[in-house]
């Protein structure tokens, strides 16, 4: 498959100088030698060998004599940032039995100490350069590779060169000492523990079943406790020497510099790198093979039944074929696109049956190439009841019909229109493709051994082939996708004795009856045929807002609009419509209808449009309809484009003027939430997700996750009774930022939101109903989970404030939180080895006068819950008693400053800043200090905030521990902090 890349130099927003200071020219002063390894002229770049896919000319490609390959390009999204990716062709599949987990452990050690970075220096160094730990500096280990990532903001020539130097030292010469191993292994084991639980057990067993006989079945990147604890410095060095070589390395760089200079720096710092000893070939990952005696027409292989009492039923069966290196040609990609159409047709039929009240809640089909180990087609579904046989027969019947009879041309055209709109949007938005995403795409292409192409190429390929795709060709491709050398299956159930492996095998061998009634008949629908919202409204006022060129328009019915038409993000339009009172509007016993509203309100339809009609009328369009319920408002939000903006606004307005109350989406959402509720008990993290907001708001029922009793009592009639009046309440503000025709949009607003009848007022009771903070004099709240016995979580929270007037202070609190977070990571991860990713964050509700809080939390072992409480309390007291050092402040403020600088080049950032200002202009006053509030402070200011919010009252505490255990009270000793600090977070597993 082609991996798409697209970009063009970003046109930054024209911002007032009071908001953002000008940045230095990126490449001034950088001196590098001319790159010698560039592949120019008629030479075929390394990634296009054996491919006739047109080259993406914005990339420069280089192949060095030592075997290292690279790709560089200029990109200004966001301005003055560079993104570096170093990919090593070694993951968990490259490990020996005694090395399980070594690829991932080596990733951690690489960040701990290296040639140019002493112990404890890596993360602080990047923070001082403005890179945020965990997002700007990161790494991932997968079965097939290890990738090191850096997104460097505010990149000056000196910073760029220093970054290449530091990264080269990390990759080439990490310090793999016994001391570093002793410090790092507990952190990796903490990561392993925190990611454990039923979902991981199911994933491991499923992978073992699906890839039986292959390395992928037994090679999880996290490794095993036994092999990790047995790791030695010598063994780690041997693994590094074997795989970390220039021949196994690809570097991709995209950023706001001359790509020739990137190439020169790569050659400067990696050109003399030589591997140790002869090159070791990659191991044979193996092929999927059917067991002896399997039916060649239906080769059922390994089957697993997993009983997990707190997980909902899930059934999957997959067709596996060997993975083989392909020649990534245009013809090959045309075939892949036709496969995608075939898959999409089946997927839509499965979804239609589920919506109509089938025996399964969800069903999906996908085709993928997995870790260079198999090419597979996967079919999975969630049975509504214990009768999995009925659901399996229904799903297999839909799939069998697709194998037997060609689809209609209308079905093909419908899916082709969806793909065409996606590809057109990619072309339109190539100018705002982030450099980080472009660098990632090269890495992904290398991983699957395929090429990259510009979005225009892909659109051209698709349009040249889609009209040639016939129903008969889709039928043949469907049949090929639903074949395999072996078929394997896994069933997860909460009930013992519900199924055996023999039952599953027998069911898959049964003759299937094709379901010919699932084909979706053509039914043309057009927005032009829909009734108007009402009489077009009258514009009362239209004037500049006074910032950024935003225009404020007010209509006679009370609707207000904030419009900013700009070319900063070509092809993109963000729409956010706010109304009502949000969570304040509900009674404490209506939690079920809050959750159902977020999931079923759109699906319940509007006017003449049910869920199927909504799908049809938006086919081939870039439209959305997200429902958000915040503390203080309801939100309809969408990302669209100018060509679809008028109809997007019609959908929003029509939902308010003529809501439809189809029961099926409500019943389906109710079933989904009921089936998944038990899953909240499976781990400390899941319990936090379920219970934290409820308990930290003093058990306010509006913040409760609806339980099975709440859901059982909810009905479609009750849903309508609750939501119908809420859709009529509160004046409307719509904010539209992006690349659109402003004059036309104002006229559209007159016919849509401006044409609505006057809104009913929000009840005074709702406006006054704000969440409370619990009494901190109470004992620690203890909740129990049913997951692994070595898992727990702990939370400490302090109340802060809320409201527009406090916005400058809320931004300063982000600096305090960053200081707190750095110290908590050092205490809980480095000194205690107790938690992999402790975190501290701040909430400040702008539209409420109260309700804000600072929250610190961590997942850890049950006996370390008191350690966390003691560490959090100690840090809070110290921040209040002693001002932070200048270096601490720099490490906190520089990343925050760079985050704001980067985010402020996008429309969504400013949309969130100015929303609400049409009714409350005071929201705009603090914009003048936005950047300085996040980046400029004093040690004394931080100490004063800590005294006010962290030391003025004890923190509220919550602990989540395993069932059958009691909360520990003894705090184990935390030894003095070692010199090591935080390694990069591992992602992508």
Automatic annotation (TrEMBL):
Top-level taxon of the source organism: Bacteria
Domain Peptidase M16 N-terminal, residue spans: 81-191
Gene3D superfamilies: Metalloenzyme, LuxS/M16 peptidase-like
Entry's Gene Ontology molecular function annotations: metal ion binding; metallopeptidase activity
Keywords, comma-separated and alphabetical: Hydrolase, Metalloprotease, Protease, Signal
One family name in Pfam for this protein: Peptidase_M16
Domain Peptidase M16 C-terminal: 231-416, 729-893
Secretion signal span: 1-26
Protein's UniProt keywords contain Glycoprotein: no
Similarity comment text for this entry: Belongs to the peptidase M16 family.
Designated name of the protein: Insulinase family protein
